[in-house]
Amino acid sequence: MLRYIVKRILQAVPLMLLITIICFALINLAPYDAIDALTTPDMTQVEIDAIRQEYGLNDPVPVQYIRWLKNICRGEFGYSLLSHTKIKYDLMVRIPATIKLILPSYLTAYTLAIILGLIAGSCRNRWQDKLIDGMCSVGLAVPTFWFAMIMMYILGYKLKLLPFIGMHTIGKENSFTDYIRHFIMPYTVLVISFLPDLTRYVRALAISQLKEDYVLVQRAFGASKYEILFKHVARNVLLPLVTKLGMALPMLVTGAVITESIFSWPGIGQYFLKSVDALDYPIVMDILVLSGSLVIIGNLLSDILYCIVDPRIKEPG
Amino acid sequence: MKKRLIKVLSIFAVAAALTAACSGGGNTGSGTSKESLQNGSAKGEEASDSGKNGAASGGESVFTYIVQGDTGNSFNPMTADDRWGLMLAHAVYAPAYHIYSDGTYDYILAQSMEASEDGLSYTMKLKDGLKWSDGQPLTADDIVFTYEKINESTQNLYVGDKPIKVEKQDDTTVIFKLPAVSASAAEMLSDEVSILPKHIFEGRASFDVNLIEEKPVGAGPYVFEEYKTGEYIKFKKNPYYVKGEAAIDTIIYRNIEQSDTANLTMQAGEADAMIVPPDLLEPYIDNEAFEIHNYSEGRVPYIRLNSASEKMKDKKYREGVLYALDRDEILLAAYTDRKFYELGYSFLPFDNKYYTDKVQKWEHDVEKAKELTKDGAKNLKLCYISEDSMHERMALTIQSELKEAGIQVELSGVNTPAYMKLTNDNTVTDYDMFIGGYVMGSDPDTFAMLFSSKKDNRLNFHNEEIDRLFEEGNATLDESKRKEIYDKVQKLVSEEAIYYPLGTNLRTLVTSKRLDGVDEAKLVPIYTFGDLSKLKFK
């Protein structure tokens, strides 16, 4: 197992390098000049040239790439072109803020999806299935931003039950209750947005598993429906779900762009979106590399977990 | 199964009960909105904590201004050039003096700024007893230090290719020596320059201030207190501010970038001020809880005909295109109501003291337009910023107006960086027209970089007479002569039929009813409030 893990990690290194090259090349191919993001109309050409020099924008692209890669490896994410501020400090605050929101939401949606998906799958075409499936259809059809705005309007503005901006009330940064009150609305929105897709996935898996011979055998042995569903079917349904969990890892960085933006949650989503809009390419590249790396790490974790969860699967190779 | 479902439901019920309990118990957050509007100060936990300072007066007063941007975790008062960075600089640092758009001076650290008779030197006299926010004295050494450091890193204080020299005469007097006469020198030396503390920055490699680890020392009305990434910047009043301690204890610039959320926050009474675009203003009109202030930032929206494009080479054709346009209709489409803009015919904002409307106005005349464009191109391409809804509405109006004159316009919206790239390149021929807008200084010489081919020539003009007049205007100190010169420049710029000014759009600030002192603070470009210390609660 250890050999396999080491081998997979070593395989991931060139892939990560490839990601950095692709990110850097794509940004450099964009038909804009980064200098435009740094200049103002009242600057003279001399000043513009000085800025170009200062930011190393005159160097050949490979030189710029190696300098950038070296810095990334040292944990130096560079400076924002627009605000001239250290990206590292922003990421240190914004990534945990996003994780604090997405992780509980996804785990809740994941757990609920398993329960609801198994119920729907086992009660195929009965009222329980129709109800769950119908709710999933509604969930998929309702845009996240609309649902967020409606929640904010009713619970936050009209009924004044919950605060609707940011992560804390100013001056109450250490209050857990205050945090939870700010957390409830974006959390609910995210759970509702993650849930339908996952539930339908579990439902489809459950339906296919219930057709398997082992279910028939269990029934013949007189196992209860509950036993069959949660002891036997659930185990087999969880296998592909493990892959889904690993693949969801990049969402920890870019999974709540809209929700964060609407609730002014100080996470990475809005930061990324704004950087793309303004072509603040050091930020864009850093986040792309981070989420790209998370895809690879997610895949790696999925493979490893798959091996651990399913003893029938032997070490590949 | 049923038991499990009941368990899940009961978890939700407990969560809901907890939420209700929290909202019932706490008097902060959205729940404070009405209360805070009424008593003018109590806000959040801080307000109640500081209630010991005087419950009758409502404790610590907090002014929350919604901004739609983040300054970032570090800040450089020397190079800040974005709106949020400049707003931060304006709160923490003070300039020597400020020149309003009508030309009046507001002396802040300086007591006077006098030009010599030959116009080659200026004497700045500082007020007595100036202090930095850390209590250290602010002297002529700080002034000299600031201007010298600017000259070391930029050419912002250059006349021609030589810098303005700065010399200390005594502790409260500084002399500025110009290499040549420059009528715009007083503006160059004014409020874009934050005076910086020598005792803090001397010996440091850069002027970068890390807002997470440091607290900048300034001489502005407020002192920086706290920065929260993506959330807010907080300031406390500066006890040593030269114009007297501010009336409001704490100012918060709250970052809410989503306009719907910002609007809801404002309407819920959780903030005291925000800039609202005309199309989102409806909930505030005739609403007793708010006041609406329209003011000019001196921004001039315009349409530029691309003189580099083959289709626009013929001046008669360009004139025809301009005759097809109706500036009132275009601005009305963009800003929804005439109270949000003033029509203008020159490149200067309508409230600039050098502004004249005695220029070629290209008043809307479809028949003339048809006649003049009959031999020219029948298809044009218009470039505008796609994410700017006002640009989009303007573009649609221009398209329909030119259609009347028999010209089809292809609308091409691009994002801001692409737009900047295209408009900064005077050789671009892919587009025939551009929609744009600018905010320049109050001295007409600051506009030279738009129209003079000897400067940046942002609008791609090639007229020697215009170049010469701009140079002459800057080298002339006599007011009436300057007026004559800039009248001529405005006329010539208009006659070139390259540039079509639409007027001056107004910026709309919505404030909560409890906020007072907006008129005394004065509304100014970029910073919004000229003197933050004058704001108070009713």
Automatic annotation (TrEMBL), chain A:
The annotated topology with respect to the bilayer is:
Multi-pass membrane protein
| GO annotation terms (biological process) | transmembrane transport
Q: Which residues form the ABC transmembrane type-1 domain?
A: 95-306
Localization, UniProt: Cell membrane
GO CC annotation terms, alphabetical: plasma membrane
Keyword annotations for this protein, in alphabetical order, are: Cell membrane, Membrane, Transmembrane, Transmembrane helix, Transport
Primary location recorded for the protein, binned into one broad class:
membrane
Do you know which PANTHER family this protein is assigned to? DIPEPTIDE TRANSPORT SYSTEM PERMEASE PROTEIN DPPB-RELATED
Q: Does the keyword Cytoplasm apply?
A: no
Can the keyword Transport be found in this entry's annotation? yes
Entry's transmembrane regions: 12-32, 101-123, 135-159, 179-198, 245-267, 287-309
Protein name listed in UniProt = ABC transmembrane type-1 domain-containing protein
Task: State the similarity comment.
Answer: Belongs to the binding-protein-dependent transport system permease family.
UniProtKB/TrEMBL annotation, chain B:
Keywords, sorted A to Z: Signal
Example of a GO biological process term:
peptide transport
Instruction: Please list where the region (Disordered) is annotated.
Output: 26-56
The principal localisation class reads: membrane
- The residues covered by the Solute-binding protein family domain are 109-456
PROSITE patterns, alphabetically?
PROKAR_LIPOPROTEIN, SBP_BACTERIAL_5
InterPro entries per UniProt = Peptide/Ni-bd, SBP_5, SBP_5_CS, SBP_5_dom
- SUPFAM superfamilies, alphabetized: Periplasmic binding protein-like II (SSF53850)
Please tell me one Gene Ontology term that the record gives under cellular component. ATP-binding cassette (ABC) transporter complex
For whether the record's keyword set contains Signal, the answer is yes
Provide an example Pfam family for this protein: SBP_bac_5
Q: Where in the cell is it found?
A: Cell membrane
How would you describe this protein's topology in the membrane?
Answer: Lipid-anchor
Instruction: Identify the stretch annotated as signal peptide in this record.
Output: 1-20
A GO MF term: peptide transmembrane transporter activity
According to its UniProt record, which protein family does this protein belong to? Belongs to the bacterial solute-binding protein 5 family.
What's the protein called, per UniProt? Solute-binding protein family 5 domain-containing protein
What organism does this protein naturally occur in? Johnsonella ignava ATCC 51276
